[in-house]
Structures are given as structure tokens and as C-alpha cells.
């Protein structure tokens, strides 16, 4: 790997770390933000969902714009927007301003992140180097969420919650300065190639309305006119988007991409996995603070073993294991570890001990360091060369949509169960724990479904070991 390649990889990884970290750094600071800005329990989730919805909803359009005007230009533009929005979030004094700033952060992240994988696979063309680069890149994504919780706890306790956003400013500025010189210049297809603005509007509106509907279930109920009506409208918008993609001259998401069983399967598995993993991180942080009485710093440190486990496996083991056994085998092993950890949480007691009840789950999360690099490799390798940018945008989209859906659904289920227990006369800690256990049970079901799909839908790709065996069996 040349010096220029290492520098470019560092820039891309730093941007991804900042993007993923910002989705999770807010989690341990949520109680402090709620108290300071007066968020309602349901409204508080929008400090996370506003970011994830904008991010997931705009990735496809941003990826297409990268094809038209150049990926380097999009990357730098997105990083500038994200950094400016971080300033606004850092100085927010009302809940409305903070949610708006988080939405703008999501827009900036979508613009930058939509082209990152496309740039990476262009820079690293040799298979072994690409596997190593993907391992490093996946490490920043996998560990970023856990690192965000540790850093969020440190900043919230040592300073205040405003600094969890302001810390992005120097990082973003440095990333832009280095990216200008380190990333290879590229020329886009030009505006004449066309961008499906209508399609982008349909999918963004559909996703935003769908997540909003789920978040508001706690207030209106699952079978209310509000929930059913808005849910039906969201489904209609997304169905219209699919129809638009089948008929548009320059579709935002050409449906041919789904002909690849590997691409389709990897994206569905990723959505289920990240829905479970990201919601887990938020709910565990709430459990540690609201039930066990941890402060923000203690919560961040309690989550540190997960960051170390995920980062170590992703950075030092995933590339070698994928090369030796193939992406599918590594994916299944990682999902098995995650499922074991999540299943352990379904029995979480009110008076849990950290070493006996929480730490084993943090260690089991090392499976994430296997799952995410394997899914990245599968999601990109299953696409034709001409669809690499499209596959990158789709992969990032399902990642963020999965995270948003996971937070909305599992947080809502936990809150509804807690309310039911409180009405029945249960103590607050008991009611909260019951709600969290339900969320972990559903998350375990998501991981179980991901494991089944990974084992049955994704095809096994030949590995060097397979080739050696074939040579021995049939030397001719």
C-alpha cells in the first residue's frame, strides 16, 4: 500500500468514523439533553432519528449526484455541510434547533458517505489490498458507534453535552484540508446524464413518514387511525418510488441491481443486523443509567469493551479470515456471536452485575467485527463493475435505514411495555427493565432472521482453500 493510498484511506476512514460516531455519541448524553432542553420521552428519540432519517433518505440521491459531478467534490461538500451543522447543534438552546441541526448533520453525512465506498474501491484494485482497506474501513464503522458512547460520556461529564457536537468542528476541518490534496480527482458524467429528483423525493418522504409513524405509536397505538393511515401513506410513497424506478429514463435506483442474489441478500441481512445492534447500544445505555444508576462517564466506560472487541476483530482478524474462509462463513460466525450476546440480554435482571450480566455481551459484540466487513465485501462484490457506485449508495442506505428503524421500533416497544407495567403498579426500575428485555428479545429475533438469511440466501464464494482442495481432488 503506497503512502498516497494510506493517506486517502485515513481520510475516508476519518469521515466514516465521524459519521457513525455522531449517530451514537448522543446516546449516553440523552438524559442530560432531555433535562436541559425539555424533550418529552417520545420526542427525545428524534435527536437520533432526525439524523438517521436524513442520512438514510438522501444517500441514494447523493450517490447519484456523485456520479454526475464527481465523488471528490461530493465528499468535500458533505463534510463541510456536516461540520457547519455540528456548530449549530453545539450551540442549540431549544429542542427544535437541536433536531433541525441533527437533520442538517444527516444531510451532510449522506452527501459525504454516499461516495466513500465508491472512492475506496477505485483506489484499491488489488484483491488483498482491497480486503485490508475494507477491514480498516469497516473497523471505523463498527467501532465508531461504541467509541461514540465512550467519548459522549467523557465529554458530557467533563464539560457538557454541547461538546459532543462541537468536537466535530476541528476533525471536519482537518478532513477537508487533507481530502483536497489526498483524494484522486475524478470527472463526473455531467448534469446531462440526469438525476431522478422525483424518485429521491418519493423515497425520502416515504422513509421519513414511515419512521415518524413508528415513533408516534407510543402515543397513538398500533391500530389507531393515525398509525394505520400514515403507515399506509408511507407504504404508498415507497411503492410509487419502486414503480418510478422501473419506468424512469435515469432512475435513482435501477432495479437491475436486485438481480444479484448476493447484493439483495447482503443488504437485507445488514438492515436486520444494524437495526438490532444500534438499538441495542441506545437501550443498554439507558438501562445502565436509568436502572443501574450509572452516570454518563461510567456508561461510556462500560461500553468500552465492545469498542475494543469489535475494533480488534475487524482490524486484525477479519481480512485474513475472509481471505481464508470466505465472506459467507465469516458472516455466519459473526452473526452467531451477536445472537448469543443478544439472547443473554433477554434475561437481564433489575439488579444486574456488570461482570456477570453486561460484560459477556460486550465481548460477544466482537461478532460485529466479523459481520460488517463480510457484509461490505458481499454487498460490493455482488455488483457489476458499472454498478459499483450504485451498490455503494444502496449499501449505505440500508445501513442507515436499518439503524433508524431499529431505534424507532425497539425504543417504542420498550416504552410501551414500561408504561403497561407502571400502570399495573410495578416499580419504575422493574417496569423499565421489563421494557428493555422485550426490546432485546425482538432484537434477538432480528439477528436470528439475519442468520437464517445469511445461511440460506447468500451464495458461498470460492476461497483459496477451496481452490486448493479442488486441485487435489482433480489435479488435471
TrEMBL record:
GO molecular function: transmembrane transporter activity
Domain Major facilitator superfamily (MFS) profile: 8-462
InterPro entries referenced in this protein's UniProt entry, alphabetically: EmrB-like, MFS, MFS_dom, MFS_trans_sf
Compartment(s) of residence: Cell membrane
Primary location: membrane
GO cellular component: plasma membrane
Keywords assigned by UniProt, alphabetized: Cell membrane, Membrane, Transmembrane, Transmembrane helix, Transport
Pfam families: MFS_1
Keyword DNA repair: no
Segments traversing the membrane: 39-62, 74-97, 103-124, 131-155, 161-183, 195-215, 221-243, 264-288, 300-322, 329-346, 358-380, 401-418, 438-458
Top-level taxon of the source organism: Bacteria
SUPFAM superfamilies: MFS general substrate transporter (SSF103473)
Keyword Membrane annotated: yes
Membrane topology type: Multi-pass membrane protein
NCBIfam families per record: efflux_EmrB (TIGR00711)
Family matches, as PANTHER family: BLR6921 PROTEIN (PTHR42718:SF46), MAJOR FACILITATOR SUPERFAMILY MULTIDRUG TRANSPORTER MFSC (PTHR42718)
Name of this chain's protein: EmrB/QacA subfamily drug resistance transporter
